[in-house]
Write a structure and sequence with these properties.
The complex is a heterodimer. Chain A is mainly beta. Chain A contains no helices and eleven strands. In chain A, the strands form two sheets. In chain A, strands 2, 4, 5, 6, 9, 10 and 11 form a seven-stranded mixed β-sheet that branches. In chain A, a hairpin with an 8-residue loop joins strand 9 and strand 10. Chain B is mainly β. In chain B, about 0% of the residues lie in helices and about 55% in strands. In chain B, strands 2, 4, 5, 9, 10 and 11 form a six-stranded mixed β-sheet that branches. The chains are: A mainly beta, B mainly beta. The interface between A and B is medium-sized, with 25 and 23 residues.
């Protein structure tokens, strides 16, 4: 079974530009999450989709970040305009309910560098 | 105070050693607990879920103490391949988003 995939693996953009990250969850997983790790800090939650609906977006840092999951399959996370502090690794994860809760499976991440 | 705190590490241990990591969480409404491992520049991978009664998976044993808001991970007979950062993860209330600890780095030396 294919795991969570993310594209691109790396992105280097200039401040003020726009970048769109993509995540394809494990097939059949209704739950999709975005997380971010900035250098030297722990991984932080950004938002959570259940199918195509935003369940929790409390972790989104500001309105420069826009996440979508049209059709409840893959998701995109757009940063517009990018700022220097947006640099970091953006992880996507997906899950389905199990006996112990929602074990999440992570994609390889997109490393974003804003210069 | 951080919601999830871990031993700062790093832990440098010889092959075959037993090593234990500790994790504390501040929110008593925390519901689910996990240990993930993360290799350098890779994604977190599920190591084990932590059950109320404690659980074991081969060389790995996880314990949960709700009264003390404390989770532990014990690794027996350490292998070189166990070298990684170990992340303590908590789900608070009945939400589903993970709250990560800062991680504890383990290096197993030959």
């Amino acid at each position: 079974e294919a795991g969570v995939t993310q594209f691109p693996s790396h992105s280097v953009i200039e401040k003020g530009q726009t970048v769109t990250l993509r995540c394809d969850p494990i097939s059949g997983h209704d739950n999709l999450y975005w997380y971010r790790r900035v250098m030297g800090k722990e991984i932080k939650f950004l938002l959570h989709f259940v199918k195509e609906s935003k369940q929790d977006e409390s972790g989104m840092p500001n309105n420069r970040f826009l996440a979508e999951r049209t059709g409840g399959t893959y998701s995109t996370l757009k940063v517009q305009p990018a700022e220097l502090e947006d640099s970091g690794v953006y992880f996507c994860a997906s899950s389905q309910l199990t006996d112990v809760g929602y074990e999440q499976y992570f994609g390889p991440g997109t490393r974003l560098t804003v210069t | 105070r951080k919601e999830v705190e871990q031993d700062p590490g790093p832990f440098n241990v010889p092959e075959g050693a037993t090593v234990a990591f500790n994790c504390t969480y501040s929110n008593s409404a925390s519901q689910s607990f996990f240990w993930y491992r993360q290799d350098c520049r890779k994604e977190p991978k599920l190591l084990m879920s932590v059950y109320s009664s404690g659980n074991e998976d081969g060389r790995f044993t996880a314990q949960l103490n709700r009264a003390s808001q404390y989770i532990s991970l014990l690794i027996r007979d350490s292998k070189l391949s166990d070298s990684a950062t170990y992340l303590c993860v908590v789900i608070i209330n009945y939400g589903q988003n993970f709250v990560f600890g800062p991680g504890t780095r383990l290096s197993v030396l030959p």
